[in-house]
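Reading is simple: each integer encodes one residue's backbone shape. An example follows:

___
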Amino acid sequence: MVERSYETYFRQNRLPHLWCPGCGNGIVMKAIVQAIEKKGWSQDNTVIVSGIGCSSRASGYMDFDTLHTAHGRAIPFATGVKMANPNLNVVVITGDGDCTAIGGNHFIHGCRRNVDLTVILFNNNIYGMTGGQASPMTPLGKKATTAPYGSIDRPFDACKLAEAAGATYVARSTAFHVQHLVKMIEGGMDNKGFSFIEALVQCPTAYGRRNKIGEPAKMMAWMRDNAVMKNVWDKLDDDKKVADKFPIGLFYKTETETYDQSYNHVKEIAGSL
């Protein structure tokens, strides 16, 4: 039998999960625990924080200290956890709506402060749980319940937004590129500071069905065929960067003081007065 040691990180009594057949969320959830296992993090010293949405249900299946918070508020809750005990490993699970719409300002300021968190955004390009509305990351022209003739709102590039706002580790992968995704998450966990990993996931029910994209396997094949490794992407001429093609990999990494380190300096100054 194939060893499945990662299963120890799941609450077996909460399974099977409630995600739709073919959903990519389970793939990313497994990638997170595989990265944690590779890092050797203790379950007693790791906290998983999530907001509201399809992806945010993942925290309930994971056997750690977990916090399922209000819509868009996962990052400030996680910031509080990290500031209360900087020795904890804090992972945030969020979605494209939860993170970049109602939670958009919290996302920006989490990056700006360089809080030592690992934030994984499950990007299914739509509000899957609450009715299939367009999210800030729904591609132009794609249909949703709030955009029945195609979205006209330009979508965010969450990776560029994270870098511009001050994140110190920014990466992207997909539910198809599983081992690559694990590596990107593991790199974020290695980073001291705000780490952001965008994980593209297929949503066959709310997004795929409405946009006539096809079966889950076809949606994953689309990821396979259109994702371009960052080192190759950077060498392409602009005319080769055609619609639907997108880069994956490590986009940005730097080192600077984390928020809890800065706060400790303030406490030292205050204590010396």
Notes: The radius of gyration is 18 Å. The first strand starts at residue 46 and ends at 50. The chain has a mean pLDDT of 94. Residues 158 and 198 are 8 Å apart (CA to CA).
